[in-house]
Structures are given as C-alpha cells and as structure tokens.
C-alpha cells in the first residue's frame, strides 16, 4: 500500500506538470506562429501517464481485493469456503506485495521522466518519491523471496487449490466481460493470456520433476507474469464496471472513460509482456544455472 501511495503521489505530480508545461507543437502542426501545446498533448507523454495510471490504480484494485478476501476469511464460518478463500489470499499475497513494489518504482521513474530535467531537481517532489520508492522491492522480503514463495509453496499447496481458485475467479470476470457491451475484446484478451499463463504453470510443474534448481530458477519471472495477469484481471473488472456506470445519468463521464481507456492501455502495452515471460519459462536453457562464478 505504501508503494502504491508513493507511486500515486508521483503520478499526480507528473500529471499536474504535464497539463501546465508548454513545449512543442503537434507533430503535424508546422505553423510556428501558433502557441506551443501542453506536453500532455503529446502521445509519448500520454503513454507515460497511462503507464502510471494503469500501475497505480491497477495495483490499488488488487490490494483492495486482497483486503476484501481477508475480511471474508475472518467472517466465513463454512469450513470448505473458508479454506478456498484462504488459499486464494495466500496465493495472491506475494503478488500483491511485489507487483506494486516493483512496478511502482518504474511508475515513479516515469513520473520523473515526464518532468524531464526538472524532475531530477529538488524543485519538484518526484525525485524524492523515486528515492523512497526504491525500498519497497527490498523490505519485508525481497522480490526474489516472494517469487520462491509463490512458485515453490503457494502454487503447490493443497494440490494447487490456490491457482485453481484464481482461475475460477478470473474466468468469472471473463464471462461477465463477454456479456458487457464494449468489454468483449478485453475479455477475450484476458482469456488468451490466462491460457498462456496456465500453459506456463503446467510446464513449470513438469520441470519440478527435474529438481528444485531448475523448477525455481525463474521464480521471479513467474511472479512478474502473475502480477501482470492479476492486474489485467483487475482492469477487466474496472472496465466492466465503468461500462455499466456510463449508462447512468449524472455520473462523471470523464472518470469512467478514463478507466476504460486505461484498461485498453494495459491490455495493449503491459499484459502482452506475458508472452515473452511465458516463452522464457517454457525454455530448457538455463544460463543462470550454467554460469560459473569465475566467468563473471
């Protein structure tokens, strides 16, 4: 939550700056007599802002979902239901700790980038946010430890019940998305990447038969894949809710359109990284195991 808070503060600071800072003109605008435009008008600046918005709001949604699960676990009296909720929360915990921490750092770096050279100075707060954000992938267990916990323990316990529960929940969102006008493509994209992720898990479980070194060599990359998958799931849920809200009178249209377009961004720019991660996880070549100490 602290990682999300810092990254969000950085995002809001860079968003405010981008709206106020004039620089350059539209690519197709050659008339130098016309005033320069705010940098938020440029596609690449929008990309950096969308990246920040997708990371901060997507991570916050995941953390709130985990908080809700924690409440449900505490209140549930039916043993079997309680067990399923517990294993799902256990599975999501290393993901919810690591994705906001790692990606919040990159998001805050993007905030510095939006400000350019001024972002590196103490005249603006983003340089301090960037320094403070660096602690989060380290304390309360490094990212590597959370990767080992996720793949080496949480995916395996109770015969993979946690992963099965995650699949069940994501599939519910996919099915609902397919029935929501305007969310069909997002739902189909999510379905595709869930399938790719499941194939990667199956491959890793096969590798576990060759021993823990090979099985866990890329645990951190698996953790990254799961972060993208679960935050993509959160964005599908947000887009679906936004679509439903847009039909109601008197609501903040800009807020909900922003949610939908950020979901589109995440599916087009971020979740696609699952492909390359899955390709690595499916590989049988392990330079990290073969590399000798003296070769460095």
List the helices and strands and how they pair.
Layout: H1 2-20, H2 43-75, H3 79-115, H4 126-133, H5 143-154, H6 157-178, H7 184-207, H8 212-216, H9 219-246, H10 253-270, H11 273-282, H12 287-290
Helix pairs in contact: 1-2, 1-3, 1-4, 2-3, 2-9, 2-10, 3-4, 3-5, 3-6, 3-9, 5-9, 6-7, 6-9, 7-9, 7-11, 9-10, 9-11
Tell me about this structure:
- The protein has 296 residues and is an all-alpha fold.
- It has two domains: 2-25 and 36-133, Butyryl-CoA Dehydrogenase, subunit A, domain 3; 143-284.
- The chain is 74% helix and 0% strand.
- It has twelve helices and no strands.
Briefly, what is this?
It is built from twelve helices and no strands. The protein has helices at residues 2-20, 43-75, 79-115, 126-133, 143-154, 157-178, 184-207, 212-216, 219-246, 253-270, 273-282, 287-290.
Mean pLDDT, nearest integer? Answer: 96
Q: Helices and strands: which structural class? A: mainly alpha
| Beta strands, count | 0
Q: Return residue spans where pLDDT drops below 50 for at least 5 consecutive residues.
A: none
Question: How would a crystallographer describe the biggest sheet?
Answer: none
H/E series: HHHHHHHHHHHH
Q: Globular, elongated, flat, extended or rod-shaped: what is the shape?
A: globular
Structural Rg: 21 Å
When the domains are counted, the total is: 2
Count of DSSP helices? 12
User: What portion of residues belong to β-strands?
Assistant: under 5%
- Roughly how much helix do the residues carry, as a percent range? over 70%
Span from first to last CA?
37 Å
